[in-house]
Specification:
This protein is an alpha+beta fold and 134 residues long. Helices cover 26% and strands 46% of the residues. Strands 1, 2, 3, 4, 5, 6, 7 and 8 form an eight-stranded antiparallel sheet that branches.
């Protein structure tokens, strides 16, 4: 299953956004209200989505100023998932950001998870845009 956020135009250069996203300590402010038990270091984080799942994340790949691939696990399935941030410079001070969530799960589980995951990736990209609009 693949869920993609809406494209968001962030008012900053790709390098600044990349550097911000490359540190999990910055992620706490971008997460939805339903998040609890947040803990982080520069390279890892874990949190619970109230009433749903506990997630553990770490960086799998960082391509400077264009893409961050985060690998994660959850207590709901043995399958690993990926959270991908794609950055594309539009102008020197504007970057288009898209967040993609990918996991290989059965169709029944995918049906139940699609809407919450869609909301999750949209909130991430929206909060990132708000952070850089300040």
């Amino acid at each position: 299953m693949k869920v993609e956020s809406k494209k968001e135009l962030v008012q900053s250069d790709a390098q600044s956004i990349f550097n911000y996203l490359a540190n999990f300590n910055n992620f706490g402010s971008m997460l939805p209200e339903q998040i609890e038990n947040w803990t982080s270091t520069t390279d890892t984080c874990s949190f619970a989505i109230k009433g749903l799942a506990t997630l553990h994340l770490n960086f799998k790949n960082k391509t400077p100023y264009s893409q961050l691939v985060i690998e994660g696990t959850t207590n709901l399935t043995s399958e690993k998932f990926e959270l991908i941030f794609d950055l594309a410079s539009v102008q020197q001070t504007q970057t288009e950001v898209v967040v993609t969530f990918q996991i290989d799960i059965n169709p029944m589980m995918a049906m139940m998870a699609k809407n919450p995951l869609q909301n999750f990736v949209n909130v991430l990209v929206q909060k990132l845009a708000e952070k850089f609009a300040q």
